[in-house]
Write a structure and sequence with these properties.
The chain has 463 residues and is of the alpha+beta class. Helices cover 19% and strands 35% of the residues. It has four domains: 38 residues, no CATH class; 209 residues, Thrombin, subunit H (Beta Barrel), CATH 2.40.10; 95 residues, Pdz3 Domain (Roll); 99 residues, Pdz3 Domain (Roll), CATH 2.30.42.10. It contains ten helices and 29 strands.
Amino acid sequence: MRALTVVSVGMLISIGCAGAVAQDGGSSGAAGAIAEFPDFRRIVQEAKERVFPAVVYIRVVSENTESGKRELMESSGSGVIVSDEGHVLTNWHVVEKAQRVRCLLSDGRHAEAEVLGTDKDTDLAVIKLKMGEGFGAIPTAELGDSEILREGDFVMSMGAPWGLDRSVAIGIVSSTKRYLDGVSEYSLWIQTDAAINPGNSGGPLVNTAGEIVGINTRGSAGSADGLGFSVPTSTVRVVMPQLMEAGRVTWSWTGLQLQALSDFNRDMYFPYEDGVIVAETDPESPAREAGFLARDRIVKIGGESVTAARVNDLPGIRKRLGLLAKGEVTEVEVVRGGERVVLELVPREKGEVEGRELALKRWDFTVKAINQFENPDLYFYRKEGVFVYGVTWPGNAATAGLARGDILLKIDGEDVGSIEDVQSLHEKLVADVEAKHRVVLSVMRRGLLRQVVLDYRRDHEKE
């Protein structure tokens, strides 16, 4: 394998300056500088050719029930082939709720793909090309080390922006460890000004050595320009094997809400040199059962020291907690009131972070399972159950006054606690509309109980 030079802004400026001096009269120093640095265009072309053939264009038909009925929607994204067996890295949001996935390769070949695994928490997914007999060899790309990136390094963003098949854009690394509040639970982001637009999602971010250093995920929003974000390969290497083997990442859940020692945005500062602050613990969580208290300062997890001096340090600690052995005791040392206390933490499996959905024909609304991570406001009222996810307008549910977010408690006097309960009762009640076309629903809305009479004699889909 040939060694390729990783180029930074400083090197490119040196190349440009050397060229200018030579044109102005030819100095021996300038000539030496030109000979010292390789041709930047050649470096970029060689790096591109190592990855670009492995970029795939992805078309997805997915299911959506947010409007109150089941709808199939078509969207597009990008991916990159990382194995000879046809494994393709992409984003969770590209293949979310996919019913069909088709991939177009760089040489014009196309193939259906199977979704092997997804992880919403890191927005990563692995799909696998269905390559029949005689499909032939496929191009692949290699994962590089995102940890050695520096601000100013040149990178290329590859993918299918706005559905325009394959494209490549060049820019620099603006930040190697960008913290984004609300979407940096387990991982920081690589920020770049290389163009990342809708459709680029799932495509590779490539360094000048021709290695994948990130998976493009988030582009500019609103009037912002030159702001793109990629999941670093340091996170990909943790997540991808689990997606390929188990179909999901089995994160451990502790219920610890953490805060950095220095938080400029919130104007909160703690006068300590090490550790991370416990801001709060989730109800009925392993952390609360272990006895953690707000303002405890965690200094060691499993015997290893931890420190979150700034918010950028929080994802690394959350990742460490998320990878703890489930069901086993981990000793956590905290400082409380000037004294060191050792607490025994027993993490549980985090499980699903999004509830299942179901469309209810003729009733004209959809339901979704309550999930503590996705719907904490509803979980406060009911730990298990279903809620109204979407209401069709015009429709029978809308006419009856049913609203999005209503927690469904009973159907015709029978308790419902799961999607399966709702599905069974719905199928039984709509089987003979002529004999029965009214049902009483008991719901909870913002903590208050109410009864809703749903008349479903009208078939709005046929009108």
